[in-house]
Each structure stands twice: as structure tokens, then as C-alpha cells.
């Protein structure tokens, strides 16, 4: 994402480095935000398209895929769905977009603003869209790929829990740590670091 520089109005010969930076107008800022939204849409579309396209996107962004061990852990649980984009990978791509956008915003913020409307739009985008980008989009993605639960599953889980309670079995205590974002269980020996499924720090 980038904003083009304005052309000189006189007939003098100027190099690219001599061209003045345009003021930060509402129109320029909307162009920047449109480019951001287009990139986010590309990421979301690719995350739901095919494994091949997703791998290509990871390579282009220079992001290491999640390990097969983490993906196998997800396969062994009926709680999770292995969608095209593994959630931990998706989170890394969002973080990259956030980082790149913040870097470009810094250069925009150094320009004089053309109007108060431009300043307000910039502040709103920075505070309410960019700062919460990873959290909001990851939660939306997790909700989209979450396996559908039928009433039969609900009754089966309830019956299983009741049987364990009646037998005095409180469950496997070795998996007592759960991710607050996606609910993935983690063993007590692995309770630090990031969630294997969605990549969110456990603490």
C-alpha cells in the first residue's frame, strides 16, 4: 500500500526525491484504507480457498507454516476443524499485515493534515481498526471454521460428563490449561508459550 506523490505545477525539472509530499487529505487516507481492506479481503479469501493458494501466500509473506505435530493435535480433537488456513498461520499473516500497515501509517502521520476530518479518520482507523485487527479477525475466523454441533452431540457430551461425575472422575488433570481465545487444551508441562491451534499467547 502506498500513496502516490503529486506532480509539480511548474515547468522545472525535478527528481522523485524533490517532489513535495502531499498533505494528508481525507481522499488520500480513504485510498490508503481501501488498499488495506483489499489486502485483508485477499487474505481472508485465500484462507478459505485452497491449501495450495494458502501455502503460496505464506511463502510470499515469509511466514513459517505450523508444525505437523500441532496440526496432528488438532486432528485428534473433534473440537477443532482443520480449515484451509491453520488458525496459528492465519494469525501470523494478520500480524504481518498489521505491522506493515502500522509502518506505512507512521509516514502518513508525519504529513500535515489537510482537514480535521482527515485527522479524525486517521485516528479512528488507527485506534478501532488496526489496533484490534488480529483479535477481531482471528475470532471471526475461528467462529467461521468451528465444527457445527448437533443436539445429538450435546446430549452425548452431557451424558459422558454425568458418568464421569458419578464415578468421581474429574477428568485428565494433565490438560488443565486452556487457551482463552479458542479453548484448546494444553498439558501442564506445556502451559507456557503460544496456543498450538490459534497461536495466541497462553499468558
Overall description:
- There is one protein chain.
- The chain is mainly α and 203 residues long.
- It has a domain at 23-66 and 82-147.
- The chain contains seven helices and two strands, in the order H-H-H-H-H-H-H-E-E.
- Mean pLDDT is 79; it is low at 153-173.
- It comes from Flavivirga spongiicola.
- This is Zinc ribbon domain-containing protein.
SS-based structural class? mainly alpha
Order of helices and strands: HHHHHHHEE
Shape: elongated
The major pleated sheet works out as: 2 strands, antiparallel
Radius of gyration equals: 23 Å
Mean pLDDT: 79
Distance between the termini: 33 Å
Helicity range of the residues?
40-55%
Q: Could you tell me the strand content as a percent range?
A: under 5%
For the biggest β-sheet, the strand order reads 1-2
Number of strands: 2
Uncertain stretches: 153-173
By DSSP (H or I, 4+ residues per run), the number of helices equals 7
Amino acid at each position: 500500500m502506498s500513496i502516490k506523490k503529486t506532480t509539480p505545477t511548474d515547468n522545472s525539472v525535478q527528481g522523485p526525491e524533490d517532489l513535495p509530499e502531499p498533505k494528508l487529505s481525507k481522499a488520500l487516507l480513504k485510498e490508503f484504507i481501501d488498499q488495506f481492506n483489499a489486502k485483508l479481503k485477499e487474505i481472508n479469501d485465500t484462507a478459505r480457498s485452497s491449501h495450495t493458494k494458502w501455502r503460496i501466500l505464506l511463502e510470499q509473506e515469509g511466514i513459517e507454516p505450523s508444525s505437523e505435530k500441532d496440526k496432528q493435535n488438532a486432528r485428534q480433537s473433534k473440537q477443532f476443524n482443520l480449515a484451509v488456513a491453520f488458525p496459528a498461520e492465519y494469525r501470523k499473516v494478520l500480524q504481518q499485515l498489521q505491522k506493515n500497515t502500522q509502518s506505512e501509517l507512521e509516514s502518513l502521520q508525519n504529513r500535515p493534515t489537510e482537514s480535521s476530518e482527515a485527522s479524525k479518520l486517521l485516528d479512528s482507523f488507527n485506534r478501532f481498526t488496526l489496533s484490534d485487527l488480529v483479535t477481531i479477525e482471528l475470532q471471526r475466523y475461528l467462529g467461521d471454521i468451528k465444527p457445527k454441533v448437533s443436539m445429538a452431540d450435546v446430549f452425548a457430551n452431557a451424558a459422558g460428563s454425568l458418568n464421569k461425575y458419578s464415578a468421581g472422575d474429574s477428568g485428565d488433570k494433565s490438560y488443565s490449561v486452556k487457551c482463552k481465545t479458542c479453548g484448546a487444551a494444553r498439558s501442564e508441562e506445556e502451559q507456557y508459550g503460544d496456543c498450538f491451534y490459534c497461536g495466541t499467547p497462553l499468558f
